[in-house]
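Board work, copied verbatim: TRAP transporter large permease subunit
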Amino acid sequence: MISLIFGSFFSTLILLGFSMVLAYSAAFILPALATGGSLYGMQDIVSWLLGAAGKSTYVAIALFVVSGNIMSEGKLTEKIFEIFQYFLGKFKSCIPIVAVLTAIFYGMISGSGMAVVAAVGAMVLPILIDFGYNTAFFAAMLAAAGSLGQLIPPSSAILQYCAMAGTDEGQMFRVGAVIGLTCAAALIILTLIHCRKDTGDQVKIQESYKKLKARGFKDVFSKSIWAVLSPVIILGGIFTETLSVVEAAAVSVVYACFVSLVIYKSLDLKGLWGAFVGSVKSVASVAMMLAFAVAFGKLMDIFQGGEIIGNGITSVLSSPNAFIFASIVIMSIGMMFMNPIAIIVPIVAPIAASFGIDPMVYGAGMAGIVAIGSLTPPFGVSLYIMAPISGVEPFKIAKKVLPIWGLMTAIIGIYMFLPQLSTWVLK
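↓ predict structure ↓
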C-alpha cells in the first residue's frame, strides 16, 4: 500500500515537471501529511535522511566532482591531447584516435561523463572539424567516449550505486574498469574502421604533427606529465589499497589545485573559487537525491515494499539471466527520459542478491547502462552538450550515436551475463 501511495505521488510530480529532488521530497512529505502521520511521521523522514547522510561515499562523490571541475578549468585536457599526439602522430588516423583517447583518459580523471563531454568536446571537436573529419560522426564518438567517464573509475555512477546499495566502492571500481576499458577499446576500433574512408586533411595533420615534434620530447613531456600522472595517482592508490576511495578523492582535489595553480598556472584563485562554487551546486542536488533514495530504501524495508515487489518480479522472472535482461531494458528505457538510478537501485539491488547474482558485476553493469544512457534521445544530455559545439542538431548526432550505444550496451550485457569475465580482478 505504502509503495503504491509513494509511487503515485512521485510519478505524478515527475510528469508535472518537478526535479528529482523535489519529487522525492514531496512524495515523502505529502503521504505523511495526508494520512496525519498514521503511516509515518515527519520525524521518521528526518531520521531516514540523517541515516543516509552519514555515508562516506557521498564525500568521495563531492570531492571527485570538485577535482573534475578544477581539472577542466585548469586545461589539463590540452596537455593530455598533446602527449598522445606526440607519440601517435605518425599514424594516418592519429588525430581521431588521439581525440577518443583524450576523452577516455580525461574520464579517468574526472569521473563525470558530462564534464568530459563538455571539456574534451569543446577542445577536440573543433580540431577534428578543422582537419576535415566528419562532424556528426565525431560529435557522436566523443559523446560516447566521454560518457565512459561515469563507468571507468573514479566513476560517479558506481559511487552513486554503492551509496544506495551499500556495496564496496573499491571492488566495484575494479569491475567497472574492466567493462569500461573494453568499451573504450571498442570505440577505438570503430574509429579506426571509420577512418579508413574518412581520412581528413592529411597535409594539415602532418603539418600540425611536425610543429609539435619541433618543440621536442622534453618540452611536450614536461608539460603533459602532470596531467598524465593524475589518474595514475588516483587509481593506483585505490587499486593498490594504499588509499581508500575517499582518501583518493581528497588527494585528487589537492593535486588538481597544485597542478592548475602552481605548475600550469592556468587557474588563479578567482578561477579556483569559481570551480568550487560550481561544484557545490552540482554536488548539492546529487547529494539530496541520493539521501532521499537511501531513505526510500529504508521506507521500503519498514513496510516490506521491497519484499512484495521482489516476490512479484521473481514470480514473473524465474532465472537470473531473465532478471539481468529485464534490468538492462528497464534502465535503458528509463535513461531516455531521466536518470532513474535513485528509483531503481533500492528495489533491484536486493532482488539481484536473492538471485545469487554477483553484486559487483551487477552494480558495475547497471552503472554502465546509466553512463551511456546520456547518449539516448529524446533527453540524452550528451547530445545537447555536443550540439552547440558541433553545430549539428541533437537528433542528427543521435542517428550516428545509437549504433555505438547499442554496441556498448551489448558489451555491458555480456559482462553481466558472464560475470567470470570480470570477477578475476576482485580480491
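The chain has 20 helices and no strands.
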